[in-house]
Amino acid sequence: MASEPTGAITDSEGQVKWFDPKKGFGFIVGPEGQDIFAHYSKIEGEGFRVLRDGAMVRYDAQRGEKGWFATRVIRVDLPAAAPDGQPERSQPAPRTFRRHATGDRGSTGVHDQHGQWGVGT
């Protein structure tokens, strides 16, 4: 970690304070406890450009008018793996069904949230 008088931090290691993947940004805790803004466009590496809360990263940062911001972020922690070595995957949402009448006959059927048709009771 090196801090220069120009307001730059180079090749430092820090922890992700929080990151919102929907908004594409979050914050890293700096070497002196300061918040360092991290935008998804500055994340290097394979896969999705997101950071996991609490993950360790290496980064470069500069001080700007609005505070510290990362100019380069490299993930150090890899995502947790399942026992078989594959990344953990969330379970699919349970399928829900809705009923509706069809045509003039008044028969009922159901569509699930994926648009698949089934017979109602």
Report what the structure shows.
A 5-stranded mixed barrel has the order 2-3-4-7-6. A 3-stranded antiparallel β-sheet has the order 8-9-10, with no helix packed on it. It is built from no helices and 10 strands. The protein has strands at residues 2-4, 8-20, 25-29, 35-39, 43-44, 56-64, 67-75, 97-102, 107-112, 117-119. By secondary structure, the chain is mainly beta. Mean pLDDT is 77; it is low at 1-5 and 81-90. It is elongated. It has a domain at 2-75: Nucleic acid-binding proteins (OB fold (Dihydrolipoamide Acetyltransferase, E2P)).
Would you tell me the structural class of the helices and strands? Answer: mainly beta
Q: In DSSP terms, counting alpha (H) and pi (I) runs of 4 or more, how many helices?
A: 0
Query: Biggest β-sheet, characterized?
Result: 5 strands, mixed, barrel
Instruction: Give the overall shape.
Output: elongated
Provide the CATH superfamily of the domain at 2-75.
Nucleic acid-binding proteins
Q: How are the strands of the biggest sheet laid out side by side?
A: 2-3-4-7-6
Order of helices and strands: EEEEEEEEEE
Radius of gyration over alpha carbons?
A: 23 Å
Approximate strand percentage: over 45%
Find the count of extended strands (DSSP E, 2+ residues): 10
CATH class of the domain at 2-75: Mainly Beta
Mean pLDDT, all residues: 77
CATH architectural group of the domain at 2-75: Beta Barrel
> Helix proportion of residues, in percent?
under 10%
Distance between the termini: 67 Å
Q: The CATH topology of the domain at 2-75, please?
A: OB fold (Dihydrolipoamide Acetyltransferase, E2P)
Uncertain spans:
1-5, 81-90
